[in-house]
Write a structure and sequence with these properties.
By secondary structure, this protein is α+β, with helices and mostly antiparallel strands. Helix content is 30%, strand content 27%. The strands form 9 sheets. Strands 13, 14, 15, 20, 23, 24, 31, 34 and 35 form a 9-stranded mixed beta sheet that branches. The protein has a 6-stranded mixed beta sheet with strand order 3-2-1-4-11-12. It holds the Pfam family Hydant_A_C.
């Protein structure tokens, strides 16, 4: 048996695959701030024999929560003399050019804790000024006096030669072994001093919190006699061991969401669909990502807290390329000072939750709106729902200000939420040069199945796939992953008669390091495989494009294929190509994978029910454009492969409801997935 758990803003999910390939899942309420308790609770809800667990994979929000809530460790920075203000100087590119009140991001490390030491390397890694070790000792004395809990070490050009950072780590270990330390060379070997500095600082900032969390969770799992190999989901779409995750916890920043994207890609392969838009609506946010040719795309241009008006904090780590917005089931509907209806980004979260939860929530949410229009049934909640109270809150907060009744106000909330989600879907498709009509939409999370059909129709997407265990699909995705690590090394070379042997030697060096790292995780050499990328650009450009290499080794005969692969990728990203311009490599990117044994997914057996016997009830539901219609409600657990239903219809399960719009049809496939044909 293989088990995966995923912590969300509202629920903690579990998915497990039994030895015969049967997939089962469950949910429990998330338990902030002691998130590990939610993991224990959801495991205890399942009939799982701890001795039968082959491995356990975990996705967590502990890192992103520590960053967004500013609940990390008191962090100090040691850097090259003259560069203590790099975190404040940042970049000059402002996202909102005409905002005269713009302020740069406030550093996670106050200036009095940013200290300098005398040392210097040049851009080729040659030592210009030796490391003055007494300066390091003086920094530690200041940090100890100020109660610093974690230290970031960032020296100029250490991505080329890290000897000074390594020596500084050794000194700290000798003089102050209790403090947590992150040196930039261990996090990122890319140039861009500001981005490398923020990544290192943020890793240090969350390291004590993440380490304590992982240790507590590990201890609880061991107490439950779950003593199998344990893995943590990373932002790059792969997993790592608990021990490795404690060293570089910043790699868990999007731990849960990216698992769903990877799961969507794997499901696409199972179903013969290699063009997928993954769409995940949880309790707090909606996330989407595009998978083309079966490949999950990663980026090192990720920024936390980035908005249209705020530049955010850059992280120079591989993260699955996702767009995330503050629109989920718990997103609050409110009226701004221009009298416009807004939904999100504020969320009712797990506590107090939507009004329907009866836990003190007093603001209308998307979940409440779907309940009022009939898309959700109060019978399907695991608590008593006072529908009259839900209606009254929507009427008071939204309906009365606009002169609408509660049902009209609820539809207004859904329209605004759908509009926000539609914009996110366009960001990963239309605005990146992809035609959404060529893709299938895989919708999951608690709210994805409810909104997907309507959004697909807007984008002219022909097929919507609602996977089995949709509400816990991110955890399902974790069971499809392999161990993964990424090594990105800046290596600048123009592709005009390049030094082929030098490039090959760089790849071999990265590969040998990957073999050693995987050996520490217990992965045999024969179970390791690589994917090679180059970050490339036109000579004179600032930005790069990530290109999967057309061949492992570059040589005079295939050089043209490398250049053409870049031209195509650049045109896809920026809508133009410059065939007469020179091309250069900026970074080598090696993704190494350690295969994890997987259990084949079992096809769904026929249920002992007819389609009529699967009907729960017929109730009025409001649909956009058609108004209130008597709609057949089906129980998903009673539907068998091959069964087909016509819209309007709703397929209910314990933790999700799939809405099939009028004019659409849905069919259950061999794995229990709902395949919706939108008819566009």
């Amino acid at each position: 048996m293989r088990v995966a758990t995923d912590i969300g803003g509202t629920f903690t999910d579990i998915v497990y695959i039994e030895a015969d390939g049967t997939v089962r899942f469950n949910k429990s309420h998330t338990t902030p701030p002691n998130f590990e308790q939610g993991v224990v609770h959801v495991i205890e809800k399942c009939p799982i024999d701890p001795q039968a667990i082959q491995d356990l994979t975990h996705g967590t929000t502990v890192v992103i929560n520590a960053l967004t809530e500013r609940k990390g460790a008191k962090t100090g920075l040691i850097t090259t003399k003259g560069f203590r203000d790099i975190l404040e100087i940042g970049r000059g590119n402002r996202p909102d050019l005409f905002n005269f009140n713009f302020q740069k991001p406030e550093s996670f490390v106050p200036r009095y804790l940013r200290l300098e030491v005398e040392e210097r390397m040049d851009y080729q890694g040659n030592e210009l000024v030796p490391l003055k070790e007494d300066d390091v000792k003086k920094c530690l004395e200041v940090f100890q006096k100020e109660g610093v809990e974690a230290i970031a070490v960032v020296y100029l050009h250490s991505y080329v030669n890290a000897v000074h950072e390594i020596r500084t780590e050794e000194l700290i270990a000798e003089l102050w072994p209790e403090v947590e330390v992150t040196a930039s060379y261990s996090v990122s070997k890319e140039w861009r001093e500001y981005e490398r500095s923020t990544t290192t600082v943020l890793n240090s900032y969350v390291k004590p919190t993440a380490k304590k969390y992982i240790d507590r969770l590990y201890g609880m799992l061991e107490k439950m006699e779950i003593r199998c190999p344990k893995y943590i989901m990373q932002s790059n779409g792969g997993t790592t061991t608990f021990e490795k995750a404690k060293e570089l916890p910043i790699n868990m920043v999007e731990s849960g969401p990216v698992a769903g994207v990877f799961g969507a890609a794997m499901l696409g392969k199972m179903l013969g669909e290699d063009k997928i838009i993954a769409f995940d609506i949880g309790g707090t946010t909606a996330k989407c990502s595009l998978v083309d040719g079966g490949e999950v795309k990663t980026t090192t241009e990720y920024k936390i807290e980035k908005t249209g008006r705020f530049p955010g904090y850059p992280l120079r780590i591989p993260v699955v390329d996702i767009v995330e917005i503050g629109n989920g089931g718990g997103s609050i509907a409110w009226i701004d000072n221009t009298n416009s209806l807004r939904v999100g980004p504020q969320s009712a979260g797990a506590l107090p939750g939507p009004v329907a939860y009866q836990k003190g929530g007093s603001e209308p949410t998307t979940t409440d709106a779907n309940l009022v229009v009939g898309r959700l049934s109060k019978k399907n909640f695991d608590m008593e729902v006072d529908l009259d109270q839900v209606r009254a809150v929507i009427q008071e907060k939204v309906g009365t200000p606009y002169g609408l009744d509660a049902e009209e106000a609820a539809m207004g909330i859904i329209r605004v939420a759908n509009s926000n989600m539609l914009n996110a879907l366009k960001l990963v498709s239309v605005r990146k040069g992809y035609d959404p009509r060529e893709f299938a939409l895989v919708a999951f999370g608690g709210g994805g199945p409810m909104h997907a059909a309507s959004l697909a129709r807007e984008l002219n997407i022909k097929k919507v796939i609602i996977p089995l265990a949709a509400s816990a699909f991110s955890a399902w995705g974790m069971l499809m992953t392999d161990l993964r690590s990424d090594d990105i090394q800046t290596y600048n070379a123009r592709l005009i008669d390049p030094d082929y042997e030098a490039v090959k030697a760089k790849w071999r060096k990265l590969e040998e390091k990957a073999y050693r790292d995987n050996a520490e995780k217990g992965v045999a050499r024969e179970n390791i495989y690589f994917v090679h990328y180059l970050d490339m650009r036109y000579i004179g450009q600032d930005h790069t494009v990530k290109v999967r290499v057309p061949a492992e080794d570059m040589n005079p005969e295939n050089l043209g294929s490398f250049i053409e692969a870049f031209h195509k990728e650049h045109e896809l990203n920026y809508s133009f190509r410059l065939d007469d311009s020179g091309v250069e490599i900026v970074n080598l990117h090696l993704a190494s994978f350690g295969r994890v044994e997987k259990v084949p997914i079992k096809t769904l057996e026929a249920k002992p029910y007819t389609l009529d016997e699967a009907v729960l009830e017929i109730r009025p539901v409001i649909f956009e454009g058609t108004g209130k219609i008597d709609t057949v409600i089906y129980a998903r657990e009673k539907l068998s492969p091959g069964m087909q239903v016509a819209g309007p219809a709703i397929i209910e399960e314990v933790s999700a409801s799939t809405v099939i719009e009028p004019g659409m049809t849905a069919k259950i496939d061999d794995f229990g997935d709902i395949m919706i044909e939108t008819g566009v």
